[in-house]
Write a structure and sequence with these properties.
This protein is of the alpha+beta class and about 300 residues long. It has 12 helices and 11 strands.
Length: about 300
């Protein structure tokens, strides 16, 4: 999967070679992939080999720090290894947004499932507390839910400001990183760090922009699907971090009174097929409900610490 991602970047991306550097984080892999990448792309990538898996947040921060310190970069693009480039000008379009407005801190494209369906990519700029809290848990849901940055029709061609964009492909201005720090490691190992980062940008007077005419394929949760034993941990992390982010930006009482029903519904129900829109026919009751409620309680307690 990582090899396919790198090949698509190098093969399709129309961007000045002298202005682009790939930094690959080997997050404690044990399958020999690091050595394979080093042999195949020695001249074109920086391979940061970590001795153990630090999780997405800390691993990404290691890469961000490398970009800032070693390459003195103007921008850092976070890109999941289960993505594939679809357009030659994708990177030029994302960078152009920042170049035309110095207050833009973060830009994200439209993400597509392999079957062509639009997946969670962004949320429109809004101040409705319900939807804002909903965003802390909605990264697995189709953007047609609520007021989408793409409109209720789901067209992937919308362009404009957004509350949040997906960290699967997120261009970040280095100036913003230097002023307001990297991803929040309190959210380790992962989940919601992209939402929190976008909220942080708006809170500090910066802008977040969704560029829907730029598309990127995202297989989404590929690593988790290869290891089914992580399902309960993933649920716990998503709930803990969602509650933690909500409390930080909306306060305790709004989190409990408005967010409470959202967290309960997310505990009981899930989508049958992740690549299809969220609707009545695509909802199922989760398995092991007693365990799920226990994990929700644990997540709440841990998030309040």
């Amino acid at each position: 999967m990582t090899r396919k991602c790198i090949d698509s970047i190098l093969g399709l991306t129309d961007y000045p070679k002298e202005s682009l550097r790939l930094v690959i984080i080997d997050n404690g892999s044990t399958d020999g992939s690091g050595a394979e990448l080093k042999n195949s792309f020695a001249e074109t990538i920086d391979l940061l080999e970590l001795s153990k898996n630090l999780g997405f947040v800390k691993g990404s921060n290691m890469g961000i720090l490398h970009c800032l310190d070693v390459h003195k970069t103007d921008y850092v693009l976070l890109l999941n290894n289960d993505t594939e480039v679809l357009q030659s000008d994708w990177l030029r379009k994302l960078v152009k947004v920042c170049e035309e407005d110095e207050k833009v801190a973060i830009v994200g494209p439209c993400l597509l499932f392999p079957n062509g369906n639009v997946q969670w990519s962004a949320r429109a700029r809004e101040r409705n507390t319900f939807y804002l809290i909903f965003q802390t848990l909605s990264t697995g849901l189709n953007p047609r839910v609520g007021r989408s940055a793409m409109g209720m029709g789901g067209s992937p061609c919308h362009f404009g400001v957004a509350n949040t964009v997906s960290g699967a492909c997120m261009l970040i201005r280095s100036e913003f990183i230097r002023e307001h720090d990297m991803l929040d490691e309190a959210l380790s190992p992962f989940f919601g760090e992209d939402v929190e980062y976008c909220f942080r940008a708006w809170e500090n007077g910066w802008k977040v922009v969704y560029r829907g005419d730029t598309t990127m394929m995202h297989h989404q949760a590929y690593s988790f699907e290869k290891d089914g034993s992580l399902a309960e941990k993933k649920f716990y992390w998503s709930m803990r971090n969602g509650i933690r982010i909500s409390r930080r930006y909306f306060g305790l009482w709004r989190t409990v009174l408005i967010g409470g029903p959202i967290f309960l519904l997310s505990t009981v129900f899930d989508k049958k097929k992740k690549s299809d829109p969220l609707k009545l026919g695509n909802i199922r009751v989760r398995e092991k409900l007693p365990l799920r409620f226990f994990l929700l309680f644990k997540a709440f307690v841990d998030a309040m610490r």
